[in-house]
Write a structure and sequence with these properties.
It is a single chain. With 356 residues, the protein is an alpha/beta fold. The protein contains eleven helices and 13 strands. The protein has helices spanning 17-33, 47-50, 56-59, 67-74, 136-145, 158-168, 178-183, 217-223, 229-245, 309-328, 331-352, and strands spanning 8-14, 38-44, 80-84, 96-101, 109-113, 130-133, 150-153, 173-177, 190-194, 208-213, 253-260, 263-271, 278-286. The strands form three sheets. A five-stranded mixed beta sheet has the order 2-1-3-10-4, with helices on both faces. A five-stranded mixed beta sheet has the order 7-6-8-5-9, sandwiched between helices. A hairpin with a 6-residue loop joins strand 12 (263-271) and strand 13 (278-286). It is globular and about 60 Å long. The N and C termini lie far apart (55 Å). Residues 48-61 have low confidence and may be disordered.
Length: 356
């Protein structure tokens, strides 16, 4: 089949370097598997890319890095979109689904030190050192474990943040997702990996999610072989946990999950913004195939043709049940207070920001 007669599949992506690396990786996988099709990359900018003078929690949007891409998908300008799964809300726009979740990279957080502190760890940094992070989740956990440090917000793509670290002199260290650092080929800059006893990770962190239209069965079939079963089950449980808590950018929520010998394990936690109060709980479930589980259209917006409905339903049940345990222990109160405090901070920030 000539290049001209091959059908073209349009792939949507953000324009940042990391997003392009991730999208081109997916393009390469698709091209290798489907030699009878062309794959074309369409790039665009999201509100999360454009608004860089405010913390993510201050922007007031749930789909900071996905909305513009989803509009293009809805209007049939692209056929599928590649996202960092942690950027995807647990409820997608009507008619959209996650058609594949690729095998997860290391989900942990990583420490990138300023060159002048390259021999330090977070524990040995001088008192008062400033550590940059864009995440309330990371900030709350770091404040709890490293009270001698000043945790300060930082925005911008990874290149911008690294330049600020190396050139401006404000930050002693940055906390970034290990997966993004590795995909950018910056692994040599990692001075410390934060295990989950210090910093539990974001929902879906390290995984790539591919979004498509729910009624586009051809694209869903195209994507199905790329879903990694273990990652997908873990992420369905994580997303169900977050959806039940109604958390997000405005409150610190974090998880740890694993799948071994047909047992899915999930640990989750919520924190106050200052890190002084937290509730963490864990739960597991054995995933068995049960014949009488009614099929659902999706599980936390995830669809899968190669996993049974019973396994997907049990993964979702795990996340919902764990969230229920945490709420029963007072986690809902901590989250509500964190959200109100975030809203108050946002109002103050909006009032002091100079008008343009």
């Amino acid at each position: 089949m000539s290049e001209i007669t091959k059908p073209t599949i349009r792939v949507g992506s953000r324009k940042s370097q990391l997003a392009l690396i991730q999208s081109k990786h997916v393009l390469e996988l698709l091209t290798q598997r489907y030699e009878d099709k062309n794959f074309h990359l369409e790039t665009m900018t999201t509100i999360g890319d454009e608004v860089l003078d405010r913390a993510l929690s201050q922007i007031g949007e749930k789909s900071l890095f996905t909305r513009e891409l989803e509009v293009a998908l809805e209007h049939n300008k692209v056929d599928l979109v590649v996202h960092s799964l942690k950027d995807m809300p647990t409820s997608l726009p009507l008619g959209m689904v996650i058609g594949a979740i690729l095998e997860r990279e290391d989900p942990r957080d990583a420490v990138i030190m300023s060159p002048k502190f390259f021999e330090c760890t977070l524990a040995t940094l001088p008192t008062g050192s400033v550590v940059g992070t864009s995440s309330l989740r990371r900030a709350a956990q770091l404040k709890r474990h490293f009270p001698h440090l000043v945790i300060q917000g930082i925005r911008g793509n990874l290149n911008t943040r690294l330049r600020k670290l190396d050139e401006e002199g404000t930050y002693a260290a940055l906390i970034l997702a290990t997966a993004g650092v590795k995909r950018m080929n910056w692994e040599s800059r990692i001075s410390e990996y934060l295990n989950t006893d210090v910093s539990m990770y974001a929902i879906g962190q390290g995984a790539l999610g591919i979004e498509c239209r729910q009624d586009d069965m051809a694209t869903r079939q195209l994507l199905a072989p790329f879903s990694h079963a273990e990652t997908l089950l873990c992420c369905v449980a994580e997303r169900a946990f977050l959806r039940t808590l109604e958390g997000g950018c405005s409150a610190p929520v974090a998880v740890e999950s694993r799948f071994l010998d047909d047992v899915l394990y999930l640990k989750g936690g919520v924190w106050s913004l200052d890190g002084k109060r937290s509730i963490t709980q864990s739960l597991d479930v054995k995933l068995t195939d049960i014949d009488d589980v009614p099929p659902a259209q999706s599980y936390t917006a995830v669809v899968s043709s190669h996993l049974s409905n019973s396994r997907l339903a049990l993964a979702e049940w795990l996340g919902v049940s764990l969230a229920g345990k945490i709420v029963a222990l007072g986690g809902g109160i901590i989250l509500d207070e964190a959200k109100k405090e975030t809203e108050q901070r946002n109002l103050v920030a909006a009032n002091v920001r100079p008008s343009k």
